[in-house]
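Input (Outer membrane transport energization protein ExbB):
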Amino acid sequence: MLNFLIQDGAEVAQDLEPIVEEKTLSIMDLLMTGGIAGQIIIAILFVLLFVAVYIYFERLFAIKAASKMDSNFMNQIHDHVSKGNLQAAKMLCSQNNTPVSHLTEKGLSRIGSPLEDINTAIENAGRLEVYKLEKNVSVLATIAGAAPMIGFLGTVIGMVLAFHELATSSGQAEMGGLAEGIYTAMTTTVAGLIVGIIAYMGYNHLVVKTDKVVHQMEATAVDFLDMLNEPS
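Output:
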């Protein structure tokens, strides 16, 4: 009988326990409840993210197009040059429209000059082609460094506002509201880090792709000069 009363009392006590509702937090809630300062910072980070993604894909497609090269290109150039048909060689270069073909065309236009002059002309043309490949890539590096700092700025502003509220309320500020303001402010740092990581990875990937094209250009320039050095 005693055990029955104890069990019954435990069940009643359990029924009387307050039901704790699990509080969910969505990303949109974080973005929209961060105050004006936080929303401005988030908007800036969204713009930076859009710019980073646009530059990445635009440069990626451009570099891929620049890296496409016919494996038989230099053999055809060699055949035309050996036959003295420089016009056909230049026509072949203009049809390919790649950095490698541009360098080769520059070298063809200087045939008859000393090899040192031809080498200098190819190097100058190579610098111009590399500049074209790296167009706007430095913006990705800037975004990768600036986005986390902008996010941290938003967090600092949010913390300042939260503690200002605590100070003006003589220490009587509601802790729930204070904590909500703090974790909302931290979202700007999270957003800044996400944008920075995306931009940093995109920048490094483009650098690797660009280096491959540069090595391809250097190898072609060496092959072209070797071709001119061949005995007649």
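The first helix runs from residue 2 to 16.
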